[in-house]
Amino acid sequence: MKSYEIGALIGYSGNLEALDADFARLKSLELNACQLNVHPSSVMTEEAAEAVKTLAAKHGIRITAVWAGWSAPAVWNFYEGPTTLGIVPEQYREKRIAEIKTEAAFARLLGVTDVITHAGFLPEDPNSPDFLPIKEAIADIAEELKQYGQYFLFETGQETPVAMLRYIEEVGTGNLGINLDTANLILYGKANTVDAIEVFGRYVRNTHFKDGFYPTTGRELGHECALGDGRANVPGIIAALKNCGYEGPYIIEREISGDQQTKDIAKARDLILSCLAALD
C-alpha cells in the first residue's frame, strides 16, 4: 500500500516535556505527522522553535501545519459564536489579525508553510456591509503570508461551503486554502461533508478527521464523537478527496483527553488506513 501521512492535532503552550510526551504518543500509535496548536504568543521564540523541531525529529513526526488561535472571548455556539469567534467580530479583529501573523511567524521558524484558523461566521451574503471589511482582513493576512511562501487555511464549519469558496475567489491571493474538518460541517449544520468537497475540494490542503452529529437545537452545535460513530461518511470523504487529487495529510482530531482519546485516535487511524487501502 502507498505510504500516507497520518497524524493527530496536538498542542504546545511552552511545556516541552508535555510536548515530548505527545510526540512519543503519536509515535507509539504509528503516526508520522501532526498539526501543532500553539498558544500563547510568549512561547513563540526562536529558541522554542528549535526545541520543538528537535523533539519532532527525535520522534519522526512532521509538523504539517500550525493551528493559529486567538485570544478570548470564544463561545462555541450559534448565539454568542457569531459575535466572539475568529476575525469576524469587528471589536476583536485587529488584535486577532496580529495574533495570527505572530503565529505564522512562529510557523516559519518551524519550517511550516500552512497556517490554519477558524475565520468565524463569515457572512453568506456578498452584499452584506460586513463582507468587504472581512474580505480585506483576510487579504491582509494572506498577503503577508504570501511574502514568505506560506498558505492561510480556513477551517471549515462556521460558514457554508459556497461562502468559503467565495472568499477564496474574491481575495484571490493564490495562497488561501482549506483545512477540511470532516465533522464541523455537520456539527454546525452547514453541509454534508462529501457534498462540500464537490464545492471546494480543490482548495483542501490539510484535514481534521473527526466525527459527530447534526445539531438538534437552534442554540448548540451538534455532538462530537469518535471517528466512524457519527454522520461523517469517512469512506466517501476519502474517496472524494482522492478524486480531487488530494495528497496531503490525514490529521485526526478527538475533542476529549486521557486514555479514551488515545483509543479513539487508534480507532480513527485504522479506519482511515482501511479506507485508503480500499482505494489503492
Q: How would you explain this protein's 3D organization?
A:
The protein has 280 residues and is of the alpha/beta class. It contains 10 helices and 10 strands. Strands 7-6-5-4-3-2-1-10 form an 8-stranded parallel sheet. Strands 8-9 form a two-stranded antiparallel ribbon. Helix 6 links the parallel strand 5 (151-155) and strand 6 (176-181). Helix 6 packs parallel to helix 8 (193-200) and helix 8 packs parallel to helix 9. The mean pLDDT is 97.
Give a concise summary.
The chain is an alpha/beta fold and 280 residues long. It has helices at residues 16-28, 46-59, 81-84, 90-110, 131-146, 161-171, 184-187, 193-200, 234-243, 259-279; strands at 6-12, 33-38, 62-68, 114-117, 151-155, 176-181, 204-208, 211-212, 224-225, 250-252.
Layout: helices, strands, pairs:
Elements: E1 6-12, H1 16-28, E2 33-38, H2 46-59, E3 62-68, H3 81-84, H4 90-110, E4 114-117, H5 131-146, E5 151-155, H6 161-171, E6 176-181, H7 184-187, H8 193-200, E7 204-208, E8 211-212, E9 224-225, H9 234-243, E10 250-252, H10 259-279
Parallel strand pairs: 1-2, 1-10, 2-3, 3-4, 4-5, 5-6, 6-7
Antiparallel strand pairs: 8-9
Essential attributes:
single chain, 280 residues, alpha/beta, eight-stranded parallel beta sheet, 10 helices, 17% strand, globular
- Based on secondary structure, the structural category is alpha/beta
- Helicity level: 40-55%
**What's the helix count?**
10
Shape: globular
What's the alpha carbon Rg, rounded to whole Å? 18 Å
Q: Note the gap between the termini.
A: 7 Å
Count of extended strands = 10
- Catalogue the unreliable spans: none
Largest sheet, order of strands side by side?
7-6-5-4-3-2-1-10
Mean pLDDT: 97
